[in-house]
Every structure is written in structure tokens, then in C-alpha cells.
Amino acid sequence: MLITTDLDRTLIFSPRATSQLGGARPADVVEAGGSQPGELCHGARDAIRALPEHALMCLATSRSVFRLARLRLPFAVDYAIAANGGVLLIDGQPDPQWSAHVRGRLAGIARAATVRALLAGLAGSPWLERLGEEDDLCVLAIVDPEKLESDQLAAIGDRCAGLGWQASLIGRKLYAFRDHDVLPCPEQCGAVARVSDHLTASRSPACPATPAPLRSPGNGSTPARAEDQPRVTVAVTTAPGVRNRTPRPSRYSARTW
Length: 257
What we know:
Rossmann fold, 7-stranded mixed β-sheet, 5-stranded antiparallel β-sheet
């Protein structure tokens, strides 16, 4: 069984986010080095520790690999999907097949440095507090959402869209990722499919040693005989409150492969 879950405001919370949701619960600090510590409540920690041995954890997050590495979680994480699907980590190492797949899909889209320069050019705006760490797949700005008007967010979104990127506001974090209108396969879902394929191949003696070809969700690609394959249940959760330039339905759902 593979359990895939969102991270921020789903498993871990900053003190600010906890207070906005009604108050603190007993928790451990699992992240230091940011503007606020990240905390994992004891209830979630104990529930994850109580999972059966055959249950594997996969984190699916908008965080960059750099920000993901700051976490010190009290449970094993076998797989992690970072940068909104741009990076797939297996036992802490980037999966080369997925990395090559993403590079191919990003060909022809503006580089992250161009989008970062766009946001840097807004320095001095009352809502922009600082830019996040440089990253090839994600551009991050820390903002004051109370001062960022909807029309300003829409204007930023339009400028990012012109570069093949999409802007989303999540709490105080303004993210820009490559736009899923330009890349029609949602990369987080594709990365979860890749994890499922990797897990199936690693656990089935009948599977070849080489990884299964990459496949996009929803393209009709299924094993020839499902009864011959181990069943891998993928349950994906995502936090509410994502403010996109254009509202969209959730891309993620529970699925059995």
C-alpha cells in the first residue's frame, strides 16, 4: 500500500497556520531554518507510526528539494515528489528516468531565472516580503496576502502564463510552476504513477529488472492482466486553500493500480 500525501498544512503546520486553524495541539518541531518552525502534531505522528509494515509513505509537495531536505520527520519516507512533480526522490535520490522525462517536457518553456527576475522586478511592492531560494523548477516569493490584491495576483498570473508558468498563492507563499495548460499531464499525478510503477516492479518477481516505461495518468495504459499484478493502493490528500489564478478542480484522487 502506498500512501501519498500533501505536506504543508496537511501533515506539518507553522505556528501561524496552527493559530489560524483554531489553536495548538501537542506537536514536535520537524523543521528548523525557515522563518517559522514546522510542527507535526502527535496525533498524526502516532497514526503514521501505527501503519502496517507494508504501507509506504510518499510525500507530494510544492517544496523544492532544498526545502524538503530541511525536514526531520520521525518516520521513514520511501518516496517524495518535490517541486510540484518536477523531482521524484526514491530513497532520497532523484529518479533519473523521471528527471529526463521532466527535462523533455520543459523544453521550450521559459527558464526559472526569467520568472524569478519577473518577481524580483516587483521589489518594493508592499505585499512582497522576500524571494525564496533559487530553484530550476520552482519560483517562490514570501508575501503578505492581506496586501496582495486579487487584480495584482491576476496580473502576475497573466505575466507568468505568457512565459509558460502558472502562479498560485498558498498561504503566504506565492509559487510559480510550469503551467499545466502548456504541459497537459499534471506532473504530480505522473510522478505518483511513476512511483506506483517502481513499487510494482520492485515487488513483483515477474517484472523485468528495468523500470517500466513512463506513462501519463488517464491515457488508458494499464497492465495486461491486473490479476497478475500486486495491488498498490494510492491515496492522495491535498490541503485546501490553494488560490490559483483560475480555479480548477482537484487533480488528485484515490486510485488503485
